């Protein structure tokens, strides 16, 4: 991730479709706020989080980002976040490939035991991806998320190191 990416990521985070599916930012983000966020993650020493850009190999375009945050070095777990911000690149396998690489990093380099995440029940595309990658529903907070038409469940999912299939030769999950 580079400071110069802030303008791109701000446009994603202000896109209503992205904001609808991403629980981390529910209100519009100013350029100043995005730049402050970038400075903070770029200064992070890796103690609590690890952030990565998702780029297209063919054209070096930034298409998304992923991170591990709330890393617990004693219990050996972290929370996962991922977004493919470029609408034209969604559904093309970028998230699956990036997460396969992230799992390898998390389990084999950081020596984590589990990764967990939260996803709104209306985000069917993400739920299908996470299930395909081996995540299991571990809990549900009923009517926890409010969006437009009403309340929705928040689904808690987890992936154990022992249940994670190794990445294929191409690095995709």
TrEMBL record:
GO terms for molecular function: acyltransferase activity, transferring groups other than amino-acyl groups. Keywords: Transferase. It comes from the Bacteria. Residues 1-162 form the N-acetyltransferase domain. InterPro entries: Acyl_CoA_acyltransferase (IPR016181), GNAT_dom (IPR000182). Pfam families: Acetyltransf_3 (PF13302). This is Putative N-acetyltransferase GCN5.
